Amino acid sequence: MRARSRWRRSSLLLTWLVIGLASWLPMHADATQPPMVDGKPMMSLAPMLAHVTPAVVNISSTTHVRVRDPYFNDPLFRRFFGGGVPRERIEQSLGSGVIVNAAKGYILTNNHVVSGADAIKVTLHDGRHFKATLVGADPDTDIAVLKIPADDLTQLPLADSSKTRVGDFVAAVGNPFGLGQSVTYGIVSALGRTGLGDTYQNFIQTDAAINPGNSGGALVNMHGELIGINSMIYSPSGANAGIGFAIPSNLAAKVMRQLLTYGKVRRGNLGVHVQKLTSDLARALGVDASSGAVVTSVEEGSPADKAGVQPGDLVVAINGTPVHTPRDLHNTEGLLPVGSAVELTVSHGGRTRTLEMHMAPERLAHASGGDIDPRLNGAALRDTSSSEAAQTVSGVVVETVDEGSRAGRNGLRKGDVIIGVNQRRTPNLAALKAVLAGEPPRQLMLIIARHDRMHYLLMH
Asked: pLDDT tens-digit profile of 6-28?
């Protein structure tokens, strides 16, 4: 009896082990299951990558930066030695790029890889080197197009990135840390990521390892098609932390077409200025909503004006995509070219309307600083765009400053935003001209926004 009892217990234990093992094996198999392509398991990425890697290039750019001796600002030093002699410091940047047109030698990469470069060198997968020409660049989307005079190139086909899904398997190809071409593998972690800087964004997020030097490289699907241009990472240490971002191929292709056609991106404009909806503002407007973008003003004759948008309207969606903040609206607006059809959904007084309009060119005033005041001579000025105003502050943007000019000697820099003059607000060029109309004031004190900080700047 005891032997039979022990046998039954052993048999029962064995049964539970078999059941447990049977239930564990499928889960374990799923965790290590290779990606499926056309309904068949892909046991290796090598066949696909054999077609991809020749289209991914290494990019090195060189920039000459002029620096002065640290004693240059010492009056005694200048008196005895006649002023400091400018020297040059050479800065180098490494990145990646993707050949997208083999016949014409066009390469997609990131703007920040080649921005300000005096020379750009492209190294192909087969070891050939070429001097590249910058066809065009768009800092607002971080896209640049290069051209090389080369034959026998391999190009990557562009996928429709709108069909990309969270969970899709992807591979990232690039030149991390200048080590040479490398490949990493992962999945799409999220889509439509925004709010990661001041550029127009619609990022694909992936956990495929992306490190410095991968910028401008390819993010491909399992068919070997380009779905994104690797652009940035999120990491406290600066190295891969499993959170990388790529610019969708559809967006990159649109920007490239405009750069090839016009040399720049011609963005459309709706003609609305908005601010964030707060709880206090919602109560004041009688709005039963917790998010959205409140219209503060509408430009006369703009698409929004013609469609009937009014101050006090709450923008809740654009082209069917919810608008939670002003950034959501201007991010979408900034990615739409001139002539694009737009559906703007607005709410006012408990009534919701969907208004149809087409993107129009943004009308920005430009002026030479010297025509406004001699102390601004050498500076090229323009109004802030609606997207810039949403991200920073309204004012007059300093587009360029001539080296050695009076404005430059006074400390004005490219990218500064003049928001006030002599304690008076200057939200645009018209206001700046009005403040300085007539006899030039004895003292000219600018209030400028620079790198998200406010400064006073005395002009002499």
From this structure: 545 555 544 444 444 444 434 33
Mean pLDDT of 280-292: 81
The continuous run of DSSP H or E covering 279 comes out as: helix 279-285
Tell me the whole-structure pTM to 2 decimals: 0.65
Instruction: List the domain boundaries for the chain.
Output: 52-75+84-147, 161-262, 268-361, 366-459
What type of residue is 352? T
- Kindly write down the DSSP assignment for every residue of 103-129, as one continuous string: TTTEEEE-HHHHTT-SEEEEE-TTS-E
Q: What single-letter DSSP state applies at residue 238?
A: S
**Nearest-5° Cα angle at 108, 211 to 262:** 140
Kind of pairing between the strands at 119-123 and 56-67: antiparallel
Kindly indicate whether the domain formed by 52-75+84-147 is annotated with CATH number 2.40.10.10. Answer: yes
CA distance 69 to 141: 36
Q: pLDDT over 70 for what percent of the chain? A: 79
Contact (CB, 8 A) for 343 and 320: yes
Residues 6+ apart with CB under 8 A from 207: 186, 187, 189, 242, 243, 244
| CATH code 1.10.10.10 for 268-361 | no
- What gap in Å lies between CA 285 and CA 339, rounded to an integer? 33
**Euclidean distance between CA atoms 211 and 230, whole angstroms:** 10
Place of tokens 């459309």: 268
Q: Decide whether 52-75+84-147 matches 268-361 in CATH topology.
A: no
Tell me which H or E stretch contains 66.
strand 56-67
Range of lowest pLDDT (20-29, 216-225, 273-282, 311-320): 20-29
pLDDT digits (tens, 9 = 90+) for 353-401: 999 999 888 666 788 998 899 999 999 998 877 556 555 567 899 989 9
pLDDT of 29 reads 36
pLDDT at 21: 41
The Cα 381–Cα 376 span in angstroms is 10
- Closest among 356, 353, 362, 361 to 306, alpha carbons compared: 356
Catalytic residues: 112, 142, 215
CATH 2.40.10.10 describes domain 161-262: yes
Of 198 and 109, the structure prediction assigns the larger pLDDT to 109
Looking at domain 366-459, does it have CATH number 2.60.120.10?
Answer: no
